[in-house]
């Protein structure tokens, strides 16, 4: 009798445990991201593989728009207490969220994770704000120079022309526009903000110094860089003004075979190949005075408001997404740079490097890639820069005047924000 | 039911029951409108009050504290170039687009008021943009007015004319937006005008015809005065609409080039949701609210008294 009682109790406990155990282990991580199309599919594949390896964790991955949309929606979601548990944040815009305690300090997680030693230095650095780790990189990029081989050949270039300096780019863009302008083809796409930042860095300057925080918007080399970029549109007329008021117009025109040269993120490599096939050639950004490129892209952060159990699960996913296997899948599909030192050893990555030569250019740029500043004022500065750029590129206002005023306002805003 | 209306139906419980019945009778209308008032309060009055409160505070959506800063946000706004530029741009937009919409709508409605097959078809065709997604319209027009790849410039080039920077020229971009907004809203204005025109008694036109009135005189002396209530309604609606225009601007120009099409609501969105300055954004919302109330009062003062609602 005693034995049978024990059996009944044990069986009951087992049954209860079998019901309770999965309920205890099941954790759902709401994850907001900004990837659609082929990138979205690649991310979903990573999520599926993670869930298969971690049966107790469900990643509810939601596409919520581009980086700006994510920031706007997160702003609204936080006071409404409807924020996700994990979120993709652009590398220059997470500083404010870290500063206000919205993002969880991931330093203890990363310190205990072998991933820390596997990440490239640049990848580890982009997640650090004020000495602490707030995001783990997922999609890192640099700007690169794309050109359409068929257009250059039509313009008379049998061999690749020099593409190292501002003058080199201008010469090629002029030739294309002169020879093919009648066909509606322009020489170069007006540089978007990421490419503008890269061109400023290659002129041995910056917008805000990432180490000292000094505002360099009105520094002579920055002014010189903007002067050259603006001249592409309103003086030399080798870049379409359509790309000034709407950046993606320049990229779309390049994809449509209507533009010869384009400077844009490595993340556009997959799209460019899909649109233009073998006509796409990728080269490093010009080194006008120095060779230096900004690091862009985004990382994944965890919300400090989530429960500890969910935060742990979210970190597990973040660490998995940065693993060599996941990173190789991501890199081979999208063209974003490898962030893990062991990614290249993966068969998928090796295959991508063999079959897509353009994908290597960004990796070759890594020795001179530089992180960008991320204090709260950067959000204001980046949002305002568009208007300043339009005024200069469309010839409505002098470059020096515009940048002097912009620098002054940025300093005021920095003082106010701090 | 009879207990509320028939005093004889009040139970013989004395003055107390009578008082309760009276109370119920007085409270009933208020109870009837309570759900609606609650809805309006939750989605209109409370947000307005919250916005007013936030306009006196400094907040970035993220910080737990919202320190009181008095009128600082208003001072910052009123001393900024952006605010005055946005107010100027929005005013110009309203001053051109409102009369254009009303004149075109009245003119077209006068022709489409007749019950013929072509006019029925045209009413539907002209109304279609009103029920089409504003974002879709703005995207399509962005391509039509693209400098290097757009339909407009392709047409001009066929005629031998040079390209026009429709959306990059600060002098032109605003007029393109006015044109697109007018095209989008015209159908609605036309339908409202047609309803107004159909309400005018036919006898008045018959009398004018017997008196030998010419067509334009009849339009000026009969149609125009009697359609004034409709005009007044459309004027109020279209001015509010002009001061709140956002989507077309956001999709087609983002307020550019260089602030040339930066409307008040676009600035509000940028300040609040891109620059994280909820206090200043709320102050701008309050100023816009006050401005629209003031405009409505002015219209009522100068136009409302001249409008007659009977035929």
Describe the fold and architecture.
The complex is a heterodimer of chains A (418) and B (311). Chain A has 418 residues and is an alpha/beta fold. Chain A has helices at residues 2-25, 37-53, 67-77, 95-99, 107-111, 115-118, 121-125, 149-154, 166-180, 193-202, 220-234, 242-245, 247-255, 269-276, 308-321, 324-334, 347-355, 359-365, 377-393, 399-417, and strands at 27-33, 57-63, 86-90, 128-129, 132-133, 136-141, 143-148, 186-188, 259-265, 280-283, 293-294, 296-302, 369-370. In chain A, helix 2 packs antiparallel against helix 16 (324-334). The longest helix of chain A has 24 residues, at 2-25. Chain A is globular and about 65 Å long. Chain B is mainly α. Chain B has two domains: 2-54, no CATH class; 79-306, MetI-like (MetI-like fold, Orthogonal Bundle), CATH 1.10.3720. Chain B is 71% helix and 0% strand. Chain B contains 14 helices and no strands. Chain B has helices spanning 2-5, 15-54, 72-78, 81-112, 117-127, 134-144, 151-158, 170-198, 202-210, 215-226, 228-243, 247-252, 264-274, 278-302. The two termini of chain B are 39 Å apart.
What are the salient characteristics of this protein?
heterodimer, A: D-Maltodextrin-Binding Protein, domain 2, D-Maltodextrin-Binding Protein, domain 2, five-stranded mixed β-sheet, 20 helices, globular, B: 311 residues, mainly alpha, MetI-like fold, 14 helices
TL;DR of this structure?
The complex is a heterodimer of chains A (418) and B (311). Chain A has 418 residues and is an alpha/beta fold.
Helices, strands, pairings?
The complex is a heterodimer of chains A (418) and B (311).
Chain A: H1 2-25, E1 27-33, H2 37-53, E2 57-63, H3 67-77, E3 86-90, H4 95-99, H5 107-111, H6 115-118, H7 121-125, E4 128-129, E5 132-133, E6 136-141, E7 143-148, H8 149-154, H9 166-180, E8 186-188, H10 193-202, H11 220-234, H12 242-245, H13 247-255, E9 259-265, H14 269-276, E10 280-283, E11 293-294, E12 296-302, H15 308-321, H16 324-334, H17 347-355, H18 359-365, E13 369-370, H19 377-393, H20 399-417
Parallel strand pairs in A: 1-2, 1-3, 8-9, 11-13
Antiparallel strand pairs in A: 3-12, 4-5, 6-12, 7-9, 7-10
Helix pairs in contact in A: 2-16, 10-11, 16-17, 19-20
Chain B: H1 2-5, H2 15-54, H3 72-78, H4 81-112, H5 117-127, H6 134-144, H7 151-158, H8 170-198, H9 202-210, H10 215-226, H11 228-243, H12 247-252, H13 264-274, H14 278-302
Helix pairs in contact in B: 2-14, 3-14, 4-8, 4-11, 5-8, 8-11, 11-14, 13-14
């Amino acid at each position: 009798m005693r034995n049978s009682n024990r059996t009944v109790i044990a069986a009951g406990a087992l049954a209860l445990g079998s019901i309770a155990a999965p309920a205890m282990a099941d954790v759902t991580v709401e994850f907001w991201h900004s990837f659609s199309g082929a990138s979205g599919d690649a991310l979903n594949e990573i999520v599926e593989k993670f869930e298969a390896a971690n049966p107790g964790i469900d990643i509810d991955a939601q596409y919520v728009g581009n980086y700006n949309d994510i920031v706007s929606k997160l702003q609204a979601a936080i006071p409404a207490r409807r924020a996700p548990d994990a979120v993709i944040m652009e590398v220059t815009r997470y500083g404010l969220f870290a500063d206000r305690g919205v993002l969880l300090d991931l330093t203890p997680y990363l310190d205990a994770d072998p991933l820390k030693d596997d990440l490239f230095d640049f990848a580890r650095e982009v997640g650090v704000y004020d000495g602490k780790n707030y995001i783990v990189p997922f999609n890192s990029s640099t700007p690169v120079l794309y050109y359409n081989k068929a257009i250059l050949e039509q313009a008379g270039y049998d061999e690749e022309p020099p593409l190292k300096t501002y003058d080199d780019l201008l010469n090629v863009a002029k030739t294309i526009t002169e020879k093919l302008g009648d066909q509606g083809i322009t020489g170069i796409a007006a540089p978007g903000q990421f490419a503008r930042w890269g061109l400023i860095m290659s002129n041995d300057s910056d917008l805000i110094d990432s180490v000292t925080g000094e505002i360099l918007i009105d520094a002579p080399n920055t002014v010189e860089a903007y002067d050259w970029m603006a001249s592409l549109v309103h003086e030399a007329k080798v870049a379409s003004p359509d790309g000034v008021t709407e950046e993606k117009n320049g990229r779309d025109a390049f994809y449509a075979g209507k533009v010869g040269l384009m400077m844009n993120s490595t993340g556009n490599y997959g799209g460019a190949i899909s649109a233009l096939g073998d006509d796409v050639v990728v080269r490093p950004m010009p080194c006008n005075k120095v060779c230096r490129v900004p690091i862009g892209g985004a990382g994944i952060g965890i919300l400090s408001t989530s429960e500890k159990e969910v935060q742990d699960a979210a970190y597990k996913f973040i660490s998995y997404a940065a693993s060599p296997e996941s990173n190789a899948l991501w890199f081979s599909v999208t063209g974003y740079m490898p962030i893990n030192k062991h990614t290249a050893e993966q068969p998928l990555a090796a295959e991508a490097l063999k079959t897509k030569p353009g994908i290597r250019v960004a990796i070759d740029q890594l020795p001179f890639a530089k992180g960008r500043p991320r204090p709260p004022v950067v959000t204001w500065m980046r949002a305002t820069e568009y208007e300043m750029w339009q005024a200069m590129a469309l010839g409505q206002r002098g470059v020096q005047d515009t940048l002097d005023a912009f620098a002054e306002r940025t300093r005021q805003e920095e003082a106010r924000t701090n | 039911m009879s207990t509320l209306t028939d005093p004889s139906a009040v139970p013989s419980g004395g003055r107390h029951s009578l008082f309760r019945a009276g109370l119920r009778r007085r409270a009933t209308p208020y109870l009837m409108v309570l759900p609606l008032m609650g809805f309006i309060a939750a989605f209109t009055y409370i947000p307005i009050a919250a916005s007013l409160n936030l306009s006196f505070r400094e907040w970035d959506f993220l910080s737990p504290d919202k320190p009181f800063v008095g009128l600082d946000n208003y001072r910052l706004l009123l001393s900024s170039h952006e605010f005055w530029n946005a107010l100027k741009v929005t005013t110009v937009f309203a001053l051109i687009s409102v009369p254009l919409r009303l004149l075109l709508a009245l003119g077209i409605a006068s022709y489409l008021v007749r019950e013929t097959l072509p006019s029925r078809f045209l009413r539907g065709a002209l109304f279609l943009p009103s029920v089409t997604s504003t974002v879709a319209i703005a995207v399509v027009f962005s391509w039509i007015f693209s400098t290097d790849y757009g339909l407009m410039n392709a047409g001009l080039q066929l005629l031998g004319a040079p390209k026009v920077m429709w959306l990059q020229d600060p002098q032109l971009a605003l007029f393109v937006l006015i044109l697109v907004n007018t095209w989008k809203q015209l159908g609605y204005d036309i339908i409202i005008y047609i309803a107004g025109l159909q309400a005018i008694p036919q006898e008045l036109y018959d009398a004018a015809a017997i008196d030998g009135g010419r067509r334009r005189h009849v339009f000026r002396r009969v149609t125009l005065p009697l359609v004034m209530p409709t005009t007044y309604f459309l004027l109020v609606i279209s001015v509010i609409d002009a001061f709140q225009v956002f989507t077309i601007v956001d999709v087609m120009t983002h307020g550019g080039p260089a602030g040339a099409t930066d409307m008040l609501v676009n600035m509000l969105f940028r300040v609040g949701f891109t620059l994280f300055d909820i206090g200043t954004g709320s102050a701008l919302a309050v100023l816009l609210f006050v401005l629209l109330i003031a405009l409505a009062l002015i219209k009522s003062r100068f136009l409302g008294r001249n409008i007659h609602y009977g035929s």
